[in-house]
Amino acid sequence: MAYYKNGDIIKVKVTAIKYYGAFIKTKDGKSGLIHISEIDNSFIIDINYYLKIGQIVEVKVLSVRNGKIDATLNFTKNGKKGFAKNIDNFKNIQLKYGFETIKNYLDIWEKNAKKEIKKTKNS
């Protein structure tokens, strides 16, 4: 199995998407997570707008802890902007930013978080 270190740029496959991030796997079977805060620098309503299960993406390794990779899509490579900066899928999405958005979505986020916690405890 390959050894990955902080700063490595590697190709990974997206294996699952949750509201808090995307799970990834390397070609040699090492798994990890791209946390939602490492997908883009803006507010993200749905990670599925950015990533799809089965998609192959280049990530930068932030750390490897307990055999799991923590990765980011927000990096520059050879002077090119990172993955999240090149996404063109949002031209038609109209969003209002600010505290009103948080107020409107907080209950939904809380319910989803409680469901995920409950699901995790039961598995």
UniProtKB/TrEMBL annotation:
- The S1 motif domain covers 7-74
Q: Which organism is it from?
A: Gemelliphila asaccharolytica
* Phylogenetic lineage: Bacteria, Bacillati, Bacillota, Bacilli, Bacillales
Q: Which Pfam families match?
A: S1
PROSITE patterns registered for this protein in UniProt:
S1
Q: Mind telling me what this protein is named?
A: General stress protein 13
Entries under InterPro entries matching the protein: NA-bd_OB-fold, Ribos_protein_bS1-like, S1_domain
